[in-house]
């Protein structure tokens, strides 16, 4: 990604204006205000894609240490700037990205998708549900939703469409390709919301909730998965049907799809030793993340989620499924560790320096004048939080910039901490549906040309409403059963 000087200048000017021009508000310390200046400048740089996000993060860490916004001591300042790199959450997501490389290298991801299509691919809607099921199967160990939806599922979807001569180049995308492309994309935000390890920003939400509640609310992998499973599954069931009704494919019966999938499975041959190991590691990690050993044998056999990820990676290295060269080449994992650490650090110090509390107090006072209870306030906050994503090209930037403040406001107005955490966590993934730049998967699928811009934004708006209604509606019932509020 080339350096973009105009966007860089905008980010710098925004930061300087906040730091030097705008007076520090009453109730805010200069250190907190200066951290806000660095933070907003960083977010603006990320949105403007001044440099790759990892490079921006390195600059942000440097500026935090150099300006001493956290401490007058230079040694303590650099310690503070690097403090988040010891966070297990950061390593959980980074290691999980490395492990997901095994799905691609061994071909197991493709085999799973072709397997579902070979069974359910007699009709177009069956192909759609097969792609959705494959997306769900691999979601727990693919924290790069772009790699999952764009790198594994999308090439398979394109191959199926091409086998029916449904391509943008031929002007026949409406035969089957447009519908499958829409399903391919809209499964991605839903599965991303179902597991902590299904997309990179989810662990950030976990960390922010933990800090905001003083450690009283800790969203474990199992807690998140159980809470999101029922509403997520309902959304996955409804989504292909809604898209089918609005943008029905011209070709509705696809017996050739089953043959296509079976031919590809035949070409792949019998399941390889490496695929079997990958499948075994996948199963082991799910058992440990679900805390099954502790449930069966006692709490002393519980294994931390990050430790589980390291166990999985270690097994893949020792068995030769992944080599150290493979891991070094997994640039997205190392990149995630770098930028994730910087953003968590800045968000943590905004909270520690009191700025989030000040912001939430002011928003609370504004909403308080409306006379709404916490239910009405949460509804307004959630809708604003979700639909403001039209102005963001990164879920990470969005969540980093706004989650802590919106969550703090809801808590101040009396929202149950666990309930509101789950609502905002769901909204943070549902918002991916909106635009062709909403998350990394979007441009991959949009640029393949099967869906026009008007169609993309139209179905995105519709699916955001459908997913929100189902997720929050079913979630409220399910979370009540689970005793979360």
TrEMBL record:
TM region positions: 6-24, 36-65, 85-104, 224-247, 277-298, 305-324, 336-359, 371-390, 396-414, 457-479
One GO location term (cellular component): membrane
Lipid bilayer topology: Multi-pass membrane protein
MF term (GO), any: transmembrane transporter activity
NCBIfam families for the chain: dass (TIGR00785)
PANTHER family referenced in this protein's UniProt entry, alphabetically: DICARBOXYLATE TRANSPORTER 2.1, CHLOROPLASTIC
Name of this chain's protein: Anion permease
């Amino acid at each position: 990604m080339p350096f973009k000087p105009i966007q860089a200048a905008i980010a710098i000017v925004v930061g300087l204006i906040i730091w030097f021009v705008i007076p520090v508000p009453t109730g805010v310390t200069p250190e907190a205000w200066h951290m806000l200046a660095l933070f907003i400048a960083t977010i603006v740089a990320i949105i403007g894609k001044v440099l790759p996000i990892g490079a921006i993060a390195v600059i942000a860490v440097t500026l935090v240490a150099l300006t001493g916004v956290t401490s007058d001591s230079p040694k303590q300042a650099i310690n503070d700037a690097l403090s988040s790199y010891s966070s297990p959450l950061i390593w959980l997501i980074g290691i999980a990205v490395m492990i997901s490389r095994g799905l691609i290298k061994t071909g197991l991801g493709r085999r799973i998708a072709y397997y579902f299509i070979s069974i359910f691919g007699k009709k177009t809607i069956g192909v759609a549900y097969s792609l959705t099921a494959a997306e769900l199967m691999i979601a727990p160990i693919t924290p790069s939703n772009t790699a999952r939806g764009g790198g594994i599922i999308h090439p398979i979807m394109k191959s199926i469409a091409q086998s029916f001569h449904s391509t943008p180049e031929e002007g026949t995308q409406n035969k089957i390709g447009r519908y499958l492309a829409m399903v391919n994309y809209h499964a991605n935000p839903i599965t991303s919301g179902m597991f902590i390890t299904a997309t990179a920003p989810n662990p950030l939400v976990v960390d922010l909730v933990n800090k905001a509640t003083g450690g009283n609310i800790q969203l474990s992998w199992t807690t998140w998965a159980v809470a999101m499973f029922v509403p997520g599954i309902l959304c996955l069931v409804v989504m292909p049907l809604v898209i089918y009704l609005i943008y029905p494919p011209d070709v509705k019966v696809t017996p050739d799809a089953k043959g296509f999938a079976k031919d590809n499975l035949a070409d792949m041959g019998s399941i390889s030793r490496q695929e079997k190991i990958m499948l075994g590691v996948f199963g082991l990690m799910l058992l440990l993340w679900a805390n099954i050993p502790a449930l069966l044998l006692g709490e002393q056999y519980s294994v931390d989620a990050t430790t589980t990820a390291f166990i999985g990676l270690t097994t893949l290295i020792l068995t030769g499924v992944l080599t150290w060269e493979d891991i070094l080449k997994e640039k997205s994992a190392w990149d995630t560790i770098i930028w994730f650490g910087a953003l968590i650090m800045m968000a943590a110090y905004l909270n520690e320096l009191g700025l989030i509390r000040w912001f939430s107090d002011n928003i609370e006072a504004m909403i308080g004048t409306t006379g709404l209870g916490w239910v009405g306030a949460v509804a307004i906050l959630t809708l604003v939080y979700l639909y403001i994503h039209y102005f963001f090209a990164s879920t990470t930037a969005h969540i980093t910039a706004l989650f802590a403040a919106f969550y703090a406001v809801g808590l101040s107005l009396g929202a149950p901490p666990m309930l509101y955490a789950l609502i905002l966590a769901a909204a943070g993934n549902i918002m991916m549906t909106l635009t062709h730049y909403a998350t990394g998967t979007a441009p991959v699928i949009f640029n393949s040309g099967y869906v026009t811009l008007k169609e993309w934004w139209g179905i995105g708006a519709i699916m955001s409403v459908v997913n929100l209604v189902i997720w929050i509606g079913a979630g409220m019932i399910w979370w009540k059963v689970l005793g979360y509020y």
